[in-house]
Amino acid sequence: MTAYDQFDALLYDHHASGLEGDTAFYVEEAKQAGSGVLELGCGTGRILVPTAQAGVSIIGLDRAPAMLALAEQKLAALPPAVRDRVSLTHADMRDFQLDAALQLITVPYRAFLHLLTLKDQRRTLACIHRHLVPRGRLILDIFDPDIETLAAHSGPLGPVLKQDRIFQHPQTGRRIISWEARRYDLERQLLEQSTVFEEVDTEGRSLSRTHRSLTLRYVFRYEMRHLLELAGFRVEALYGDFQRGPFSHGGEQIWIARKVETERKPS
Length: 267
Ligand SMILES: C[S@@+](CC[C@H](N)C(=O)[O-])C[C@H]1O[C@@H](n2cnc3c(N)ncnc32)[C@H](O)[C@@H]1O
Description:
Layout: H1 6-15, H2 22-33, E1 37-40, H3 48-53, E2 58-62, H4 65-76, H5 80-83, E3 86-90, E4 102-107, H6 118-131, E5 132-143, H7 147-152, E6 162-168, E7 175-185, E8 190-200, E9 206-217, H8 221-230, E10 233-239, E11 252-259
Parallel strand pairs: 1-2, 1-4, 2-3, 4-5
Antiparallel strand pairs: 5-11, 6-7, 7-8, 8-9, 10-11
Helix pairs in contact: 1-4
Bound molecules: S-adenosylmethionine.
């Protein structure tokens, strides 16, 4: 599991640019909620900051101090009116305690897949359910596991790294080439991703290589639906992209779910 430490945080915005249209989508949903918005796994504020800039007050929660520190840094450069709309919390989405009436809780950019066990997934959904007002909404996106890709990459994680991105190091200004290898563990339903960040000089000579690994639990469509329903949510929509197109296999799963009150048993 990645720690999202200082190294990850520094490079995050430069290689994890999100999914097409995701920021606009989440900002729109937050505007519709109007107030009482919480983003779980807010990271460096990629979505949180534009949400506050659009006039919506939002709480950002993350368990990685280095990611939150970058979000703080971004906010510090913004007008006080924007800063005042944001509150950042260092906590774990599996077990958080906030004193707020929440209309909308979001878990953008596949952060839900960092929950590696069924127990963690259910704990998180229960915690979200507890924090939402009656009929409050949960919106999250995850990738839809593509069966052919899974089958093709289910062997051992080999030494073959595929070039992924080239970008500039935000501090040294040098070129960073990122290389990636993936493996799907079909028994444990895990995606194991290995990334090497290589810093090169102007001649293309390698100066340093930093290795990172990331493990995600991929979730199938009807598995996610069951998880949501078992946790007391009614699914209102499943989109396949952030333009609200239909779901299709191997694309995205963008879930909009509404809290339903669980029946109280007579005492
Ligand atoms: C892929 S990043 C997404 C960041 C941001 N939402 C975005 O769209 O750019 C995932 C984030 O989830 C956070 N995260 C992972 N597991 C978490 C947990 N159990 N509780 C809180 N945050 C968590 C990580 O620290 C990281 O910042």
